[in-house]
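Feature request, filed as a ticket because there's no other form

It would be nice if the structure record came with a short human-readable summary line next to the tokens. Right now we just get the raw output. Example of a typical job, pasted below so the devs can see what we mean:
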Amino acid sequence: MFDHGEMPALALSPLADPVGVQQEARSSAARIQSVDTVQALQARIDSLQRTRLDTRLMPTHEALADLLPDGGLREGAVYALSPSSTLVMALLLGPSQAGSWCAVIGMPEFGVEAAEGLGLDLDRLVLVPHPGDQWLAVASTLADALGIVVVRPGRAASDGAVAKLAGRLRERGSTLLVLGPWPQAEAMISITASEWSGLGEGHGLLAERQVTLTVTSRRDPRPRSGQLLLPDAEQGIQRLDPPALRRSPERRSPEHRSPEHRAQERWASPARRVG
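Raw output as currently delivered:
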């Protein structure tokens, strides 16, 4: 049946161990499942953090809102301020009028009469004029119970203490305003120009103060600035430059403008009283 000669040998590869193949497949599937689980958890954590920190804002006076990142002060965040009692009062005004408890630590010059005249609720205001070296402990304790805390730091705090306080703020949803620089601050809010009016030639009274408020955010490198009377002649807050004109939004037909743009157009008149 066959031709004379030897048949060539067939090169056969050895059969793989079926048990080993199954184990390797299960191990690979487990690794893939673990990676997917970790990624899903991370996405869930990021979503929860964005929901908590990006959408929950402290009530803010409308004359200041468009200057601040996200349009207001975020719960759980820290903001650095230039040392100004009037600026502190302006930032506390919205939360105070909305019913939040506020605390001011390390500012003995903070005037309660001026604060009341501006509109702050003194019944919900806690003052700690002289915390000494315990300023950080006092701020941490009050942040556990109050919505917004202002502090002028004493001696420098360690990186560990700063990180611990930041975690407590996020957990409690409190907002911290620090006079002076602060690591990882959400924004720096500064009075970059100031001019009082009302005094004549050696007589008269200080009537109002025009300031330039500049906000620099770590998430937006472009500073935002606005002109305000802080306070005005009636001890209120008045915005001088219309936000709609300052931002110069894209021109659109009325039916295509967002509610935010339509609201900004109401500032088109000259100085508007807002406090």
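Something like this underneath would help us a lot:
Helices lie at 18-54, 62-65, 85-97, 112-118, 135-143, 159-172, 243-247, 259-264.
Residues 196 and 209 are 4 Å apart (CA to CA).
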